[in-house]
């Protein structure tokens, strides 16, 4: 499912206009993004949690040339799946 499919599904199931459903989805993602930028953890019960992990700089290797390069430190979002979702997905 992609974002536009989510918007369509929300509009249909909640009897909303596409514009209203789009506003709801965009607001949800924007607020999640703001929280992660501030360094807060975002938890959605039954789904999982998002947090930002800090990665230190290190020496890496260019796979094409084999040359050693310096990889800068960075912050990246990380998702940890919740137990409930794990169990629901694992049903065969």
Write up this protein.
The protein is an alpha+beta fold and 92 residues long. It has one domain (3-89): HU Protein, Chain A (Irregular). 42% of the residues lie in helices and 29% in strands. The protein has 3 helices and 5 strands; from the N terminus they run H-H-E-E-E-E-E-H. The protein has helices at 3-13, 18-38, 83-89; strands at 42-44, 48-55, 58-61, 68-71, 74-81. The strands form 2 sheets. A 3-stranded antiparallel β-sheet has the order 1-2-5. A hairpin with a 6-residue loop joins strand 3 (58-61) and strand 4 (68-71). The longest helix is centred in the first third of the chain and has 21 residues, at 18-38. It is elongated and about 55 Å long. The protein starts with a helix and ends with a helix.
**Kindly state the mean pLDDT as a whole number?**
95
CATH homologous superfamily classification:
IHF-like DNA-binding proteins
First and last CA, distance:
20 Å
**Low-pLDDT sequence parts:** none
Broad shape: elongated
Fold-level CATH name: HU Protein, Chain A
Count of DSSP-assigned helices? 3
Query: Which CATH-level-2 architecture?
Result: Irregular
Question: Can you identify the CATH class?
Answer: Few Secondary Structures
Strand order of the largest sheet: 1-2-5
Order of helix and strand elements from N to C terminus: HHEEEEEH
**How many individual β-strands?**
5
Q: What's the number of structural domains?
A: 1
